[in-house]
Amino acid sequence: MAEPTQFFGDGRRDQTFPTLEPLEVERIRRFGETRVYAAGEALGRVGETGHGLTIILSGRVEITRGAERGLPAPIVSHGAGSFIGELGQLSGRPMLVDAYAHEPVEALLIPPERLRALLVAEAELGERIMRALILRRVGLIRTGAGGPVLVGRPENADVLRLAGFLSRNGHPHQRLDPETDPDAKALIERFHVDPGQLPIVLCPGGQLLRNPSESDLARCIGLVGPIDQDRVYDVAVVGAGPAGLAAAVYAASEGLSVLVLDCRAFGGQAGASARIENYLGFPTGISGMALMARAYNQAQKFGVEMAIPDEVHSLQAVADPAPKRLSLTLANAERVQARSVVIASGARYRRLGIWNLESFEASSVHYWASPLEAKLCAGQEVALVGAGNSAGQAVVYLAGHVARIWLLIRGTDLAASMSRYLVDRVKGLPNVTLVTEAQITDVGSRDGTLEVISWRRAGSTERVSRPVRHLFLFIGAEPNTDWLAGSGVSLDTKGFVLTGPEAGTDRRPLETSRKGVFAIGDVRSGSVKRVAAAVGEGAQVVAALHAFLAESQR
Ligand SMILES: Cc1cc2nc3c(=O)[nH]c(=O)nc-3n(C[C@H](O)[C@H](O)[C@H](O)COP(=O)(O)OP(=O)(O)OC[C@H]3O[C@@H](n4cnc5c(N)ncnc54)[C@H](O)[C@@H]3O)c2cc1C
Q1: Is the separation of the CB atoms in 27 and 126 below 8 Å?
Q2: Terminal CA-to-CA distance of the chain, rounded, Å?
């Protein structure tokens, strides 16, 4: 059972489970409808979709978790004035807990779209409710309650892949080690799983998946569902990094219907940043994941629909009878129709040209340094390649967790590519050894895990080898524009999207060579590769979208 302090966080019980005053409940009655429940009746069960906020008018409701695994554990008991719901109910996503009437209950049911209207219309009350929904999700993540259960060895690459995917999407989950956890052993026996089939995932609805893809897992837990093929959105945004989320927040808050698609998780590259220190308004810095989770929640509050993970494969114009529509084809062959498209697909990490290195991704080769990776290599020796700011941030973060970092750079001096404040910090760390003019020559492995990394310095014949099991790569990025092949969107020589006058005559700012298709953030040719710049372009593009949509309706 979740310890209350573990669930609520320090001193946050009142904010997590506030009680609304009778006058406040009266004020928001117009957003919902009342319903009565008999003692023992379910107000909502794990996996059910479409619920919004349920405010208890009279009676008592018990909230539990884990019943689907035969291990029900109480979380909280709601009385008059308190409400049932967490972040997922903003968009009608599956319930992560069970709610049963302990005695006859009268409740006010506010469906997801009315809940969003309430949050916008009732500023102060809306803020308290929104904070409670977020804190409850945080509590569920902290305790792993309500999400899928992953069974597999903690260092297994597929366990790390699936856990990383769920963490990046802010979804609660539990990990069980089959060698040490009796619950894991019980599940393996119950489902007759061969050790070679691990990891398995038990979804909250009771379905068992054997080493699923991220997309299959997302569909099983209701993170993503089918797209309405007939709906025409005002804007489809490809990419949920800072640029895409900013465009979505500004567009939806100004009344446009918006769908955001991302093939992996919300947050993009920024979501992978251990600490962003140069984003305006956060003098002590903020983790990229925390900043991006706020933006993601904010977008949902304004009614943005999310399709994550859903990969866009191509962009085309819809032929007659709707020549003013654009269409996106997804990897699963679904189609999205929209009057305008914002390309915010950013960039992806460059890989090292070393044979077979990709096969160690997720287990030993990492492209970001989050708490997940820090835990994995705690107390060990690691190597990190890169000399930019993202490399510097990762070094500063990892140095607090690992025994030693070998920082390998191609150039002769960090200051050539890293901000001064980071260079000073990196140089002040006693467990970081800087190796200049270095190049990794080869790696050695055992049982799918790196064991040793070797490098050589320019002009030297000496080959240095160290027992390093975790290699971090921060060596720049390439634009995610493969999916634009054949779309008629012009790219520069490096593959970045051209916009404005560079894309053609009569182009609006941020508009590409195709009318109604805009590009923002890192994917745009000539953009400043920073979070603030991406967010700024996300806000700016909305003015161009309004102008385009108004013109195309005339
Ligand atoms: C580790 C790290 C640390 C950083 N630290 C800082 C910092 O401290 N300060 C700062 O200002 N900047 C920092 N940056 C740079 C900053 O993160 C980027 O400039 C910013 O994220 C760009 O935002 P974006 O939305 O344009 O693109 P991205 O963040 O790259 O997001 C693009 C999104 O599009 C999705 N996508 C791509 N192709 C498709 C497709 N075909 N279909 C669907 N979805 C798709 C991707 O999955 C991704 O989520 C850092 C970058 C990294 C990698």
Answers
A1: no
A2: 60
